[in-house]
Amino acid sequence: MKNIVIVGAGPGLGMSIAKKFGKNGFRVALIARNEEKLNQLVSELEQLGIEAASFQADILNKAQISLAFAAIKEKYGFIDVVEYSPTPSIDTVATALDVTEENALYQFQFNVLGAISSIREVLPDMLDKQSGALLFTTGWCRNRSSTNDGQCRNSCFWSS
Question: Per DSSP, which regions of 13-80 are E strands?
């Protein structure tokens, strides 16, 4: 059986991806900060007949991410797919005119360094096995030209 890890699991995009992969035979491992919400998501997946487990970790904490991935590997073995889609609090997102070094650094840590910490946990195994996929689905875009607060982020995909 194949395994997918959803990093930044939530009720929206992450859960949709978990359901899609789960219905196609993948076991699902969910990583997020809020253990109570994780347990609710796992329960929902199990009600659909999808094998799932939760692993609490903050993506801004490299040690917690490492421990979560170690626990997932111990439980499920090889990780076939990692999907990275954390959503920052709207309070941390700045409009183009309000970007500062401080809030840009937070977004970099959240979106880039969190992804790097996650990928470092699986990429060596994927390269050794010459198999695996990394999905970065944190992209969203909003443009309200009347208020001049356009905000965008990108999405990308990698697979071996």
Answer: 26-32, 52-56
pLDDT in tens, the chain (160 residues): 999 999 999 998 899 999 999 999 999 999 999 999 999 999 999 999 999 999 999 999 999 999 999 999 999 999 999 999 887 666 767 788 888 888 888 888 888 999 999 999 999 999 999 999 999 986 554 433 444 444 444 444 444 4
3-state SS, residue 53 = strand
Query: Which helix (DSSP H) or strand (DSSP E) does residue 129 occupy?
Result: helix 114-129
Q: Is the pTM of this model over 0.70?
A: yes
Which amino acid is it at 27?
Answer: R
